[in-house]
Write a structure and sequence with these properties.
With about 325 residues, this protein is of the alpha+beta class. The protein has one domain. About 20% of the residues lie in helices and about 20% in strands. Strands 3, 4, 5, 6, 7, 8, 9 and 10 form an 8-stranded antiparallel sheet that branches. It has a two-stranded antiparallel sheet with strand order 1-2. Strand 3 and strand 4 form a beta hairpin. It starts with 9 loop residues before the first strand and ends with a helix.
C-alpha cells in the first residue's frame, strides 16, 4: 500500500502569500495561510480517483480536495491548540483528519500536542459524502477500490472501532477499545515537527451480494476482516532531541536575555557618551573683569545732545 505514494508529483506551498488558489472559497483562512500545505497532487487540487477532474468548479466539495491538507511529514510552525489537521497519504485513497486531544509536556521535556484520528473519520455525513464508492457508504468503513484497481477492499479502525454497531455484531471476537485500537500522533507545535506516531488500521473485504456460490452466501453484504496492522515511529535520535531543546526551550530564553542586554547596553552607551561630553568639554571662566574695556559697558549710556538740554531748561523756566 505504501508503494502507492511513490511515482506521484506532490506540490506544497512554502509562502502562502505568493500563491493564489482557484479553490480558496472552499478553504478556511487558516488553511490558506498555513505553510507547507498541499496545493496539488499530480498537478490537480483533488483526486481523480473520486472524479475530481470530471466535475465543474461549481459542483466541487471540500471533501474532494487534497489542497489545504498536509503530507504528514512537514507541518507549519506555531500550531494553534485545538486545531484539527488534515493529512493526505495516497495509501488511504483520501485525506483523513487528525483531531486535537491535549497540550502536554513529553518525557523529553518538550511541549507537545497530542492528536488522534477523528472519531468520525470513516463516518457517514457531509464530510465523507465524496468517498461513497458506487454511492455506498457504511459507517466506520472506507472503500479504497478506486485507488486499488477496483478491488473490494475497505479500511477501518481495528476491531471495527467507531463502526456501525450492527456490523460489529456480525463478527465474533470483535472487542473495540480506544486504548488498544486507537491511533495517535505527537507534534511539537513551535517548529511543527512530528515527534512520534502510532497508526493502527484494519483491512477488510467488502463481500457485497454474491450469486451462484453457496459457500459465500453466508458472507453476503458483510465486511469480512482480514488483518490489522500497527505502524509506529522509532525513538528520536539524541542529537535531534538536543536540537529541539535548543530551538524550543533554550533559544527563546537566550533571545530574551540578549534583548534586555542590548537594551541596557544601548542605555549605558548613551549615558556614558553624555557624561563624557560633560566632563571633557573645557569651560573657560575669566580671571578678572576690566571696566576699562570699551567693549564692556555694565550700564547702558544714552547720549543727549546739548541743544536738546537747553530747550528743556527754557521750558522748565517758563513754567
Amino acid at each position: 500500500m505504501i508503494s502507492r505514494d511513490n511515482g506521484n508529483t506532490l506540490t506544497m506551498v512554502r509562502d502562502p502569500s505568493k500563491y493564489h488558489s482557484q479553490t480558496e472559497s472552499l478553504l478556511t483562512e487558516e488553511e490558506r495561510n498555513s505553510e507547507y500545505h498541499l496545493v496539488k497532487w499530480n498537478n490537480l487540487a483533488g483526486l481523480t480517483d473520486w472524479g475530481y477532474q470530471r466535475l465543474p468548479n461549481k459542483s466541487l466539495k471540500k471533501c474532494q480536495l487534497i489542497e489545504g491538507a498536509f503530507d504528514g511529514t512537514i507541518l507549519p510552525k506555531n500550531l494553534r491548540a485545538n486545531r484539527s489537521l488534515t493529512v493526505f497519504r495516497k495509501a488511504f485513497c483520501r485525506p483523513v483528519t487528525l483531531q486535537f486531544v491535549r497540550d502536554t509536556v513529553g518525557k523529553q521535556g518538550l511541549q507537545q500536542y497530542e492528536y488522534k484520528f477523528d472519531d468520525n473519520m470513516f463516518g457517514v455525513g457531509e464530510t465523507n459524502e465524496c468517498f461513497c464508492y458506487k454511492n455506498k457508504c457504511v459507517k466506520g468503513f472506507q472503500s479504497i477500490a478506486p485507488c486499488y484497481y477496483g478491488m473490494p477492499i475497505t479500511l477501518s479502525q481495528p476491531h471495527y472501532l467507531n463502526a456501525d454497531e450492527a456490523i460489529l455484531k456480525t463478527v465474533n471476537g470483535m472487542n473495540p477499545n480506544v486504548e488498544q485500537h486507537g491511533s495517535s500522533c505527537i507534534i511539537q507545535p513551535l517548529v511543527g515537527a512530528p515527534l512520534s506516531g502510532n497508526m493502527k488500521i484494519q483491512v477488510n473485504i467488502d463481500v457485497g451480494q454474491t450469486i451462484g456460490n453457496h459457500k459465500t452466501v453466508p458472507f453476503n453484504n458483510m465486511q469480512v476482516p482480514l488483518f490489522w496492522v500497527e505502524i509506529t515511529t522509532a525513538e528520536m535520535p539524541t542529537l535531534m532531541i538536543i536540537t529541539l531543546h535548543m530551538l524550543c526551550n533554550a533559544l527563546p530564553i537566550i533571545l530574551e536575555i540578549i534583548k534586555y542586554l542590548l537594551g541596557l547596553g544601548g542605555l549605558a552607551m548613551i549615558s556614558g557618551s553624555a557624561l563624557y561630553i560633560l566632563l571633557k568639554t573645557p569651560v573657560r571662566i575669566p580671571g578678572r573683569i576690566s571696566f576699562s574695556n570699551s567693549e564692556y559697558v555694565p550700564f547702558p549710556i544714552i547720549s543727549i545732545p546739548s541743544d536738546l538740554l537747553d530747550k528743556c531748561e527754557k521750558r522748565m523756566s517758563l513754567k
